[in-house]
């Protein structure tokens, strides 16, 4: 390889060889996961914001890219990919830079097992965000408008859950279950971080990226006490380490409106006592 | 590397370097997925049957290996792994032999996306097997005994679904939804196989292994017409190709009792007209 070419192939340039476009939404947990890995691996990308509150995920042009009506979607010269966990492994397989996976197959398998677990946990975060935060904005709408909004949810089970979350808040069975599953997640995470700074890797990687957005959301909902330095010190230390990394601001906080955090934190604070009581009852 | 050592490291021997034990159940779809890849890659393993009908998946010793009370579980010198999709990637990463993954990152990502989709489909297969087949055996039990069996299911939603499947059979909403999702799966599969003999690979691989057990189950339930040579020729050809491979008998049919297939096929045949009517209604 000639000197010029070898310079071109140096880390930074290789990452700009492919055109990368990310369709995403600032606060969306799964969008955060992909932005974090793009940032970690120093991959330049074109950012296209999909405004979930304005329903842009349902626009026919976008649904052609993402038939699930979800964010994020990654488009490269290779083609279109959806599902954050699939996208993140692809980014690590395809782009050099800091590796986001462990190097041995057994730890890779453990990382994948964890990511699969987090994917299963994911809907609980929706219930928590909705039932503790967003519902308090929605119930201020005129009843007709709200009913129509809920009726437009195509999936029968999601529609029923949304109805319960709006009508019952912290008394909705789906939210009580979500809080219990969150307690399970935090216990598992505290244990995984007992002897390791990062999840199944020597440095921040895909499993950390998959988990972080849910910890951030809990903090935004005024539930940070769940991983205080006395209650769950391993999570606390892990979170502090991440807050000191550039990715934290560049891929996460810079994309989340302060006003949204303010609303979530207010409603979380108002209901904190009841939330902790539910979580203590096992 | 000396000659003796290089002979030792030749394909076959490398696959016997690690001790591999598989805890599995003959007809279980996810057990089939792993047995298929072990067979494809010519990996020798110790077989430990977990009798799901006798409740051996709940035995404390087994739960230590698989906290989800499920099969399969793979134990190697590296440690314990669960979840068939994670296990199969581990086997391909770790053992030489016929590769079960495509070689380029984009097709690997598409394979993973498909496997993730199949993992989400998986519970539908349970509803179909249960609601069309097994319920007809269960409803012959004394009511007390049956009620107790259903009451022992810990998960609230699974318990409710089981109750509906037993009480309503083909009128259970969960079964009607499962049949609709099966129609979606078959349409997607027919399309994926339009220009390719195998799923996202040049030869039989992980995505094929993930899909095959559900096609086999449909055939066992007398629903083979859904992928007849006229109705869905691509699936039909793919299935015929697989039936001609050694893995089909060695990893699948040899582990499934004829008597079970007989029962499933009988109940499927009895209800076939109603099943197809449900599937035609979109």
Automatic annotation (TrEMBL), chains A, B:
Name of the protein this chain belongs to: Glutathione S-transferase family protein
Domain of life: Bacteria
SUPFAM superfamilies: GST C-terminal domain-like, Thioredoxin-like
Domain GST N-terminal per the UniProt entry, residue ranges: 18-99
Coiled-coil regions listed: 172-199
Residues covered by the GST C-terminal domain: 104-276
Organism phylogeny: Bacteria, Pseudomonadati, Pseudomonadota, Gammaproteobacteria, SAR86 cluster
Keywords: Coiled coil, Transferase
GO function terms (MF aspect): transferase activity
UniProt xrefs under PROSITE patterns: GST_CTER, GST_NTER
């Amino acid at each position: 390889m000639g000197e010029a070419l070898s310079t071109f192939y140096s880390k930074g340039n290789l990452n700009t060889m492919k055109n990368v476009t990310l369709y995403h939404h600032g606060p969306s947990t799964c969008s955060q996961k992909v932005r974090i890995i793009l940032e970690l691996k120093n991959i330049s990308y074109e950012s296209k914001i999909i405004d979930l509150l304005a329903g842009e995920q349902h626009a026919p042009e976008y649904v052609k890219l993402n038939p699930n009506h979800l964010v994020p979607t990654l488009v490269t010269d290779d083609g279109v990919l959806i599902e954050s966990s699939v996208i993140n492994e692809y980014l690590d397989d395809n782009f050099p830079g800091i590796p986001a996976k462990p190097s041995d197959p057994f730890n890779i398998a453990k990382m994948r097992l964890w990511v699969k677990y987090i994917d299963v946990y994911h809907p609980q975060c929706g219930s928590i965000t909705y039932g503790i935060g967003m519902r308090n904005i929605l119930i201020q709408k005129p009843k007709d408008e709200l009913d129509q909004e809920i009726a437009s949810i195509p999936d029968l089970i999601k529609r029923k859950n949304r109805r319960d979350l709006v009508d019952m808040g912290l008394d909705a069975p789906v939210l009580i279950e979500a809080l219990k599953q969150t307690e399970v997640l935090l216990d598992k995470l505290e244990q995984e971080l007992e002897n390791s700074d990062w999840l199944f890797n020597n440095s921040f990687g895909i499993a950390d990226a998959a988990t972080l957005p849910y910890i951030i959301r809990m903090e935004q909902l005024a539930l940070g006490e769940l991983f205080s330095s006395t209650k769950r010190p391993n999570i606390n230390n892990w979170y502090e380490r991440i807050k000191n990394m550039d990715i934290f601001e560049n891929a996460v906080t810079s994309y989340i409106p302060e006003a949204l955090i303010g609303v979530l934190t207010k409603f979380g604070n108002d209901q904190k006592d009841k939330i902790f009581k539910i979580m203590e009852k096992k």
